[in-house]
Design a protein that fits this description.
Blueprint (H helix, E strand, L loop, with lengths): L10 H13 L5 H8 L6 H8 L15 H42 L4 H10 L1
Length: 122
């Protein structure tokens, strides 16, 4: 079985790569590792953490209180119910329009507005 080759990087190289990340030369640490041919998927990530440059990781941390989390669930459920009610209302409106067209055909009325006027009088 072939032995895996271990590559060691100097501190100067590591700091240079991190400096280039800070300057915006690379859009992510993955792109930087690809550019320099660094094979380890987490090698550059470890350097970023080692030198305290976590701002380069583009992670968003969200802190919530327990009641905020349950409030978020309630709001999502409410949105889901409102979306369902809205789609039902749209279907009802489509059915009513088609029923009106059918009623006009049966009554022999070509103009739907004329039919509406006759129905509002009676």
């Amino acid at each position: 079985m072939a032995r895996k080759e271990t590559i060691r990087y100097s501190e100067a190289f590591k700091l240079q790569l991190i400096r280039e990340l800070e300057e915006g030369k690379f859009t992510s640490y993955v792109k930087a590792s690809e550019a320099y041919g660094i094979r380890g998927s987490c090698t550059v990530l470890e350097w970023i953490r080692k030198y305290g440059k976590n701002n380069l990781l583009n992670k968003v941390v969200r802190v919530e209180k327990p009641n905020e989390k349950s409030e978020m669930k309630k709001l999502k459920n409410k949105i889901r119910k409102l979306e369902s009610a809205l789609s039902d209302a749209h279907l009802d409106l489509i059915i009513e329009k088609e029923y009106l067209k059918l009623s006009c055909e049966i009554a022999g009325i070509d103009n739907i507005d004329e039919f509406k006027k006759k129905q509002s009088i009676g």
